[in-house]
């Protein structure tokens, strides 16, 4: 059963703004990333989502394809972002089968709750490897295609880009490392690394016309992360503290994604867009 459009996208966006664009997304079968990709596909993009679980990734690709008649969405399972070879092959397949690779969402992440005293070296390393090294591998595997896409569309600021600008990366990060959070040492350190990577890519690859930005979701309802990581009693307490007075929705992350990939964000590079209803500023407030 297709997800109703108003559940994953605001009405403000124009249909077709991503026609002829292709998005490559790691962690694409997850709740947040699939919502991001679904919105882009609805607005004209084709997509390649990759993940570790074959069945889950292929099923999600089929589901996302229902967002627009004629959409092409490839689901490639058995792709671990820790393995550069599997990512290189996936990026090549995306570009060959869909004709280009214009946008990247680096969304694959690992997480669990554990106090530092129960965090083995390998547990810490696993999350660092998935989040930081995995994001780095994703950038490395897709940069040649992004550079090609950005070059094709790069404008001098006075010539309008006829079909929009390509060569864009969004990293999905978090806000927990802004203040630190108990039981999340590994993830806090990893997400700080992801943010630093996004900035380095922005500076180094910006001259090629590539933009690199971060979306930092706060507490988003209905996600795997919230279900697995937030205890119900903590959730009730934190909802009261969020200035918006509620959890966020995946639709709000999708809207931020559409903005950053749209021509409205042509001059936005190296930035973090926090989508959290003001929540992180209340971390530590009782
Ligand atoms: C302590 C744990 C643990 C736990 C695993 N480990 N779970 N330690 N507490 N709950 C340890 C293991 O014992 C092992 O260390 C090491 O971590 C690696 O575990 P494996 O299972 O072998 O690794 P792997 O199969 O690669 O799995 C990686 C993973 C797993 C990160 C551990 O949780 C995972 O695959 N997660 C992916 C999906 C996911 O988490 N998505 C949610 C993202 S939400 P030893 O020493 O025994 O070898 C999100 C939101 C961010 O990211 C924002 C936060 C608010």
From TrEMBL:
SUPFAM superfamilies in UniProt: NAD(P)-binding Rossmann-fold domains (SSF51735)
UniProt-listed Enzyme Commission number(s): 1.3.1.124
Coiled coil: none
This protein's UniProt keywords: NADP, Oxidoreductase
CDD domains reported in the protein's UniProt record: TER_DECR_SDR_a (cd05369)
Protein name: 2,4-dienoyl-CoA reductase [(3E)-enoyl-CoA-producing]
Superkingdom, taxonomy of origin: Eukaryota
Transmembrane segments: none
Cross-referenced InterPro entries: DECR2-like (IPR045017), NAD(P)-bd_dom_sf (IPR036291), SDR_fam (IPR002347)
Catalytic reaction(s) noted: a (2E,4E)-dienoyl-CoA + NADPH + H(+) = a 4,5-saturated-(3E)-enoyl-CoA + NADP(+); a (2E,4Z)-dienoyl-CoA + NADPH + H(+) = a 4,5-saturated-(3E)-enoyl-CoA + NADP(+)
Gene Ontology biological process terms in this record: fatty acid catabolic process
Class of this enzyme: oxidoreductase
PANTHER family according to UniProt: PEROXISOMAL 2,4-DIENOYL-COA REDUCTASE, PEROXISOMAL 2,4-DIENOYL-COA REDUCTASE [(3E)-ENOYL-COA-PRODUCING]
UniProt keyword annotation of Transcription present: no
One GO term describing the cellular component: peroxisome
GO molecular function annotation: 2,4-dienoyl-CoA reductase (NADPH) activity
């Amino acid at each position: 059963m297709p997800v109703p459009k108003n559940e994953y996208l605001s009405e403000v966006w124009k249909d077709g703004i991503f026609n002829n664009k292709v998005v490559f997304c790691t962690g694409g079968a997850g709740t947040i990333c699939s919502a991001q990709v679904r919105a882009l596909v609805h607005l004209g993009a084709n997509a390649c989502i990759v993940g570790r679980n074959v069945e889950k990734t292929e099923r999600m690709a089929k589901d996302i394809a229902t967002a627009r008649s004629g959409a092409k969405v490839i689901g490639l399972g058995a792709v671990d972002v820790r393995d550069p070879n599997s990512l290189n092959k996936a990026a090549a397949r995306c570009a060959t089968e869909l004709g280009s690779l214009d946008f990247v969402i680096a969304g694959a992440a690992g997480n669990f709750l554990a106090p530092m005293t129960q965090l083995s070296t390998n547990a810490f390393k696993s999350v660092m490897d998935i989040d930081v090294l995995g994001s780095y591998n994703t950038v490395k595997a897709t940069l040649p295609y992004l550079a090609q896409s950005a070059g094709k569309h790069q404008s001098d600021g006075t010539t309008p880009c006829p079909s929009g600008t390509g060569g864009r990366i969004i990293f999905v990060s978090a806000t927990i490392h802004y203040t630190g959070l108990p039981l999340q040492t590994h993830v806090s350190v990893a997400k700080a690394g992801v943010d630093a990577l996004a900035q380095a890519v922005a500076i180094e690859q910006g001259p090629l016309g590539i933009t690199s930005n971060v979306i930092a979701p706060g507490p988003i309802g209905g996600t795997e992360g919230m279900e697995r990581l937030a205890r119900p009693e903590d959730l009730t307490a934190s909802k009261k503290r969020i200035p918006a007075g509620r959890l966020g929705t995946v639709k709000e992350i999708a809207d931020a994604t559409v903005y950053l990939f749209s021509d409205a964000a042509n001059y936005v590079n190296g930035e973090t867009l926090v989508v959290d209803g003001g929540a992180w500023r209340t971390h530590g407030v009782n």
